[in-house]
Amino acid sequence: EYSWVCMSLYVIISDTSVCGKAQIVAAPASSRLYEKSKGDKLMENNWKAWIPDHDLENKYFICKAVDDEDGLRLFLISNDYGKKICVQFPGMVYAYRNRLELAALSTLDEVVDKSGAVEASNWTFFVAENSAYAREVAKESQDIYPVSQLIHFAVVGGQALFEVITDTLPVITEGWEILI
Asked: Is the pLDDT of residue 36 over 50?
């Protein structure tokens, strides 16, 4: 039998970046157990709500994804179209994938909210702990990129699930820069 404890992770990226806090609030209902050191068990794909220290709306739509020499950037707009933000990935981006919401229903359905406060239907930003996707990237790189340095970040937009494997949490800025 396993019980859930609310844990927090504080991340400071740099003086100019957004600080964030991730809380364990959900875990997939069909999770498998994996061994950690010292015999502890860790479930696969533990979803954590990523709550940056920023004034954000709960839900956003993904309007555009740009991957160029400036890095990966996601341009989001709030459900009421009143707030635009840019999610920038300043670190190395090892992989990403984008799926329409209807093509990711099984993944989204697996997020079972233990606290009743945050779930995929009412929050946008998540980090997956013990991620199968991050392990796949590590395996494909023949562990050149060890899973211990990989972060599985997910944006659950109104119409899509955009997942990023990176080594640094993103930075959120208000507004959109002009795209050329």
From this structure: no
Instruction: Give the H or E element holding residue 137.
Output: helix 132-140
Closest CA to 173 of 100, 80, 75: 75
- Distance, in Å, from the CA atom of 18 to the CA atom of 53, rounded to the nearest integer, reads 6
pLDDT in tens, 18-31: 334 443 333 333 33
Q: Which residues contact 18 (CB under 8 A, 6 or more apart)?
A: 52, 53, 54, 171, 172
Rounded Cα gap, residues 147 and 74, in angstroms: 24
> Where does residue 74 rank: exposed (0-12), middle (13-18), buried (19+ CB within 10 A)?
buried
Q: Which one has a higher pLDDT value, 22 or 112?
A: 112
What does pTM read for this prediction? 0.75
Dihedral, CA of residue 164, residue 14, residue 173 and residue 23, to nearest 10: 60
